[in-house]
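TICKET: design request
STATUS: open
ATTACHED STRUCTURE:
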């Protein structure tokens, strides 16, 4: 029994078991086929590698307060760690940054090579990133045209943020 009553479905009882078995096999195979998994992704002020190959992250953030209305953010880093199925294997990854309207403002192909532990660290420097509007932006990583993970950051006006804080303080 899998918690589904015969009244909830139109599947004949003699075929329900086979159909469920096929669906479970498809799900299991899809999980097995996931060639690459994202372990961590960060947007930060600076990132580099140690002598041992570890990633050093400095100033991790998820909000940008642009100075003026230039429409660009001068410099930041996107760092990530992925886990592959093979040691010492090279994986092609597409880094995409989308604005609040889902328009691609940055698209870059990178290559990450796993080590003995099947993990690959990657640091990607971004100069003069276009930030045309306030709102929530998405950083996505794709492998073989499939998203393996993402994170978000918000572009906001610090004046709006201070006014919101003042209103919430005076209302209490």
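STATUS: resolved
RESOLUTION: sequence designed for all positions
ATTACHED SEQUENCE:
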């Amino acid at each position: 029994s899998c918690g589904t009553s015969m009244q909830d479905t139109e599947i004949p009882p003699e075929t329900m078991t086979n159909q469920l078995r096929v669906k479970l096999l498809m799900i299991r195979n899809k999980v097995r086929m996931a060639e690459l998994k994202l372990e961590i992704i960060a947007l930060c002020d600076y990132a580099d590698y140690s002598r041992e190959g570890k990633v050093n992250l400095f100033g991790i953030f998820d909000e940008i307060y642009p100075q003026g209305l230039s429409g660009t953010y001068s410099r930041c880093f996107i760092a990530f760690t992925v886990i592959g199925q093979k040691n010492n294997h090279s994986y092609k990854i597409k880094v995409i940054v989308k604005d609040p309207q889902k328009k691609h403002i940055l698209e870059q192909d990178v290559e990450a090579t796993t080590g003995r532990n099947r993990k690959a660290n990657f640091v990607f420097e971004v100069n003069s990133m276009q930030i045309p509007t306030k709102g929530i932006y998405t950083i996505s990583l794709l492998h073989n045209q499939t998203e393996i993970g993402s994170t978000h950051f918000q572009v906001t006006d610090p004046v709006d943020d201070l006014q919101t804080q003042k209103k919430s303080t005076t209302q209490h």
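CLOSING REMARK: The beta strands are 36-49, 55-60, 63-64, 72-84, 90-98, 104-113, 119-130, 135-143, 146-155. The longest strand covers residues 36-49.
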